[in-house]
Amino acid sequence: MSEPSWLVVSRELRAIAQIGLTFSKDAFDRQRFERIRELAARLTAVGSGEDDARILDLFRGDTGYATPKVDVRGAVFRDGRILLVREISDGRWTLPGGWADVNQSPAECVVREIAEESGFSVRAAKLAAIHDYRKRHRPRHPDSIYKLFFLCELTGGSARPSEETSEVAFFERHALPELSPGRTTAEQIELMYAHAEDPARPAEFD
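Below the sequence we write its predicted C-alpha cells.
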C-alpha cells in the first residue's frame, strides 16, 4: 500500500522538528525547528483536510526523540472462532488491543487490553507478527506505528463490554463482521488463523 507523498514528507519533517527541539539549546535553531513543525502541520492539514491549529496542537503534544508508537493486538480462539470487540468510536469490529503502556511488556499490555475490552482473561502464548502500519492499513495515520500481534490462550472470564467497546463476540473464520480498518484487517485475522493452525509457523515481520 503506497502512501501519499504529502504524508510521507510531513511525517519525516515532524520527526526532524521534534528531535531538533528535544536536543537543540540554541534559540535560533529552536525557532527553525518550530517553523519546520508548523510546516509539517500545514502540509498534513492540506493533505488531510483537517484544521491547521488542531494538527499543530497534536504535533506539539509529542516531545522527546521521535520513535514509532506501539499497538498490540491479541488473537483469542474458542471452538474455531476468533474473539472480536466492537469499537464504540466507529461501530466496527477489531481484535482487542490498543496502545502499549509504559512499564508493561508487550505481552502484559495485550493481556490487559483483552481483559479491559472483552472481559476475558488470557495468556499471551506467541508473538505472531510485527507489522508496519503504513504498509498494511488504510486510512493513513500521521504517526509511525508498529503493530504487534499475539496468539493468546483463553484462561477465564466472560464477555463484558467496556468504555471503549459496545459488544464482544466470537466469529467464524468466513463470517467476519465489518472490521475497523485502522485497527484490524481481514488479512491479519487470516494470518492469526494460520498461526493457530501451525504453532511452528515463524513470526511475520515487516
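Strands lie at 69-78, 81-87, 93-94, 97-99, 120-132, 145-157, 165-171, 204-205.
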